Amino acid sequence: KSNSRYWKQWYQRRVRGLFGVMEADFYGAIDVDTCTSILFMPRLPESYAVWMGELKTPAYFLKRYGVDHVYYSDEITTILKQQRPSSLLIMQGTNSDSKASFEQPTFPGIEQFKLDTSTLYNQIADCRVRKSPEEMKVMRYVNQISCEAHKEVMKIMRPGRMEYEGEATFKHYSYMKGGMRFVGYTCICASGKNSGVLHYGHAGEPNDKRVKEGDILLFDMGSEYAGYTADITVTFPATGKFTEKQKFAYNTCLKANKAVQAAMAPGVKWPDMHRLAERVIIEEFINEGLLVNGTVDEMAAVFLGAVFMPHGLGHLIGLDVHDAGGYVNAPERIDEPGIRYLRTTRVLEEGMVITVEPGVYFIDVLLDDAFANPEQAKFMNKELINQFRGMGGIRIEDGVAVTADGSELLSHDLPRTVEEIEAFMGR
After folding, report:
1. Cβ-count burial 369-403 (b if 16+ within 10 Å, e if not)
2. pLDDT tens digit string along 62-94?
3. Any idea what DSSP says for residue 28?
4. pTM of the model
5. For residue 194, with 0-12 CB atoms within 10 Å meaning exposed, 13-18 middle and 19 or more buried, which class applies?
6. Residues ≥6 apart with Cβ < 8 Å to 284
């Protein structure tokens, strides 16, 4: 149960995932022996009807959410004692990725029960890792609308526009055409050098730069529907035409994206996919002359991939944009540059939905550090690499479901190649 806005939003996702509940201040219980589901609704005062609308009855919520029983929350102790449980499995734990803690819900009389606070959290988190067929229908829909919204943004963004116009267009389309009132996370609408700021769009940098001629635009946005979110990044030139350097960086990133998708299947280790993306980027940099005097293996051994892709390849997605379970029943986080930011080290399984989001960035602080590191600098063509400074970065992010024999691209309805993007923006 909630007692703060942040906790309410976080907890409600867990209640919604289990019971479908959208309203605040509900408790939910499941008898694991009989699979009986119970909701406990708040007993609201009559004044609620004035300010918030009609007071709903237990019968209403019984029909709305298809559970077995609905009672008022002030009846929890009485009802649960009638069940005579050996213990109550209580939702309490720490997110295995973010380390954010989830406090134990409580209610009057809870001290009368034997509590187990160590089992439920990780069990629920693990259940969220694999999506049901019904969940996949929602994930396909939210990705479809998000793709359409991104294309609307691509149609209007040109030099002279403000970054936030892209955010406004995306949100407007998602709600007007898809019934999606919310987005799954803070929109990243970065232009020019801002595209090299991985979490641009925050309160201190609120998508408020004017787009300039020659800018690359990196827009990372995902709509949310029925609690489930998409997470898609498109990168395109403000003018509708890539420069040669932008084209090289973009094609390198796209090649890494496609290589990972082609290799995904049940049994594949996700860290191996991160390393595959890095190796593709290093190989393309060697072919272009940005990296010299060594092999892919030699460069990977000194973590040159992390200089140009400093984040993890992707994360589980669903009820949260960084969905639960990434480090539940999974190998430990790998403490090496770049790959340490992976939000899961799990082996891929059928039913997982995960983002594939390699990036190619030219970030001043990372380049300066690498040039100052003899082990890395000996492979770097400083003169050529410096010509890419100021461009920012490229990220191509897709939502991908793991299938029995490979993968399914959920964010498929987007122009992705250089030729497709330029043709789309030239209409």
Report:
1. ebeeeeebeebbbeeebeebeebbbbbbbbbbbbe
2. 999 999 999 999 999 999 999 999 999 998 888
3. E
4. 0.95
5. buried
6. 248, 251, 252, 255
